[in-house]
Amino acid sequence: MKFMKLGSKPDAFQADGKSVRYVASELSADVTINVGEVKFKLHKFPLLSKSNRLQKLVSKAGENSDEIDMVGFPGGPKAFEICAKFCYGMTVTLNAYNVVAARCAAEYLEMTEDVDRGNLIFKIEVFLNSSIFRSWKDSIIVLQTTKSLLPWSEDLKIVGRCIDSIASKTSVDPASITWSYTYNRKLSVPDKIVEEGINFREKIESVPKDWWVEDICELDIDLYKRVMITVKSKGRMDGKVIGEALKTYAIRWLPDSFDDSVSDAHTCKYKYLVETLVCLLPPDKGVGCSCSFLLKLLKFAVLVGVNDSPREDLIKRISLKLHEASVKDLLVPARPPQNTLYDVELIQCIVNRYLMHEKYNQDEKNKVNGDFILGHEHVTLMNLGKLIDGYLAEIAHDTNLTIASFINLSRSIPDSARPIQDGLYKAIDIYLKEHLSLTKAEKKKICGLMDVKKLTMDASMHAAQNERLPLRVVVQVLFFEQVRATSGVQALNSNARDTSNSTTNTDEEWEKTAADDNKSLKKQMSRMKMKDEDFRKNGKLLKKNSKSTKSGVQLLPSRSRRIFDRLWVVGRGHVENRSSETSGSSQSPTSVAPGDTKSFGSSSRQRRHSIS
Questions:
Q1: Pairing state of beta strands 92-95 and 67-70?
Q2: Read out DSSP for 139-186?
Q3: What is the mean pLDDT of the chain?
Q4: Domains of the chain: which residue ranges?
Q5: 3-class state of residue 265 by DSSP
Q6: CA nearest 91: which of 148, 169, 11, 147?
Q7: Is the per-residue pLDDT at 130 higher than 50?
């Protein structure tokens, strides 16, 4: 910290209690100056030789009065004592914490060059310009002290000069920074490992672009706003660094949680803080701030009731990068008159805007690239699908969540965003578990959201045993699992036939690809055999109603077991029929056993009846 010493005489100020200050001297005091609650018993000559205002006040008071009141003195008794010591020539030390108060007090006392050469105002200005404003941390400290000295500090342009000094330093090339700064969020550069046999070299850490954001977090929100506006106006700061600065400030001043017990004063404070941070967001809505940070601001915006304009701005920004969010980020608490735990309508609005934006971008790209979905867009849609399915699973626990809200949010996601629907199935299962009063029609409606063909094996096995699902859905799950198994066997036969008939490759090509083809074929055969064996074992176990767990197969409920038995018979007959038609043998399709054909037909009729 920079400092400046003025005067050379020893400090002779003494106290008489808490409210009286005097100078130890052989001469008795001839003037009493009241500053706040403190009385200063001093001598006229040294004071009048430096202060034009004291000359006027003493002259006005006349010889009959030796007491002067300093009304509205900036900086209070401490600032006046600094000025008085300077007048006496006593040693006084100025630093970043008291220089603004001393400057304002000197201005009040009119300690200018017209009164005496080298007066206090001149010396303080030299100190400010040559030391304080050239120091990063001193400039911030001085700026903090200006708030208690308004409007004097503003009229003397100390606030503006501090802000310009701080903003200018933030724009300096990080490689040129030599002053100290605070950076506790992460290490700039990981420690380098020194190889064996090489001498240790001096460790040089690079300065990050956002080196300045933590130090200015100590500023009051009004001063912080002015600093950030000046930083942005210079046009040299990257939007991501601006976003990081705002995020760091929000972490510093916004609480981790918020409830209705917070006082109105704190609520107004947080409201103003959030509105200010929103207005400081980078102009480019697509970059700068993470979606998680924007959603945190939106949560507080909802809780403290910010105005519509900043709230709408946040929604627009979030809708551009919703796929980057997490489920926890989306859990925005609902406010009255809503009776749900979370604001589902708000998330529905954001999802709709996101999809509209994505559709517009895709249409624009299609004009150039043709009518197909690029890889990046497909990935973002899949991320959105996983995000919303996770959000549905979270809000499904809310007993006040209506089935209409659940269905509308689920249907807003396009099918291409859900190549696998295990997440949606989990959400539906939770909703059915928490809402036991649903009618059969409502259960059928909500289960109609998922496509059982897009469930994985694990999810299908769980669904087949799920007593909460309607019978129609269980039948569909079992049927499509059987279809998946039979199609796998057919694919295996087809691959084997193609391999045996392929004779067009040259010897050289065969040598290059034989190993890979053989490995691939073995893997496919292994998977198909395992799947076929599992279904055979399941069928036998179900028919015998075995309780043995040696095979590691989980038994199905009785309702699903009967359906699975029928479907297994159907699948076996279907596979054998297809094998006869496609094999190279002379056996004709009519050679299929009549009993098998009848079983397929009767089973099919029974299956159709059970679904309807």
A1: unpaired
A2: HHHHHHHTGGGTTHHHHTTHHHHHHHHHHHHHTS-GGG--S-----SS
A3: 79
A4: 3-134, 321-366+375-489
A5: helix
A6: 11
A7: yes
- Cis omega before residue 337 (within 30°)? yes
End-to-end distance of the chain based on CA atoms, in angstroms?
A: 84
- Report the distance separating Cα 174 and Cα 190, nearest Å: 18
- CA 250/CA 563 separation, integer angstroms: 58
- Residues 6 or more apart whose CB falls under 8 angstroms from that of 46 comprise 87, 88, 89
Hunting for tokens 């760091």 — which residue is that? 248
What's 3-134's CATH class? alpha beta
Q: How far apart are CA 380 and CA 324, in angstroms?
A: 8
Task: Tell me, yes or no, if the pTM score tops 0.85.
Answer: no
Asked whether 291 and 318 are in contact (CB, 8 A), the reply is: yes
Q: Phi/psi of residue 68, each to 5°?
A: -125, 135
Q: How confident is the model at residue 532 (pLDDT cuts 50, 70, 90)?
A: very low
Please write the tens of the pLDDT for every residue from 251-271. 999 987 766 556 778 889 999
Closest CA to 565 of 487, 482, 484: 482
- Would you place residue 557 in the very low, low, confident or very high pLDDT band (cuts 50, 70, 90)? low
pLDDT tens-digit map of 71-104: 899 999 999 999 999 999 999 999 999 999 999 9
**CA separation for the pair 331, 341 (Å, rounded):** 9
In the three-class reduction of DSSP (H, G, I as helix; E, B as strand; rest coil), residue 68 is classed as strand
Cβ-in-10-Å burial (0-12, 13-18, 19+) of 42 comes to buried
Q: What pLDDT is attached to residue 377?
A: 65
Which pLDDT score, from 0 to 100, does residue 420 have? 93
Residue with tokens 């199905």: 556
Q: What is the CA radius of gyration of the chain?
A: 40
CA gap 529, 203 in Å, rounded = 60
Question: What is the model's pLDDT at position 81?
Answer: 95
Residue 14's beta-bridge partner residues?
A: 22
Report pLDDT for 495. Answer: 56
Q: Identify the pLDDT of residue 582.
A: 39
Nearest by Cα to 142 from 64, 223, 234: 223
| Distant-in-sequence contacts of 312-315, Cβ < 8 A, 24+ apart | 313/278, 313/281, 314/278, 315/346, 315/349, 315/350, 315/353
Q: Which two tokens stand for residue 102?
A: 């001393």
Q: Where do we find the tokens 């705002």?
A: 246
CA distances from 338 to 335, 402, 411 (A): 6, 12, 22
Burial 196-208 (b: 16+ CB within 10 A, else e): eeeeeeeeeeebb
Residue 21 has pLDDT above 70, yes or no: yes
CA 568 to chain centre: 50
**b/e burial code for range 565-591 (CB count within 10 A of at least 16 → b):** bbbbbbbbbbbebeeeeeeeeeeeeee
The length of the chain, given as a count of residues: 612
Place of tokens 């509205």: 72
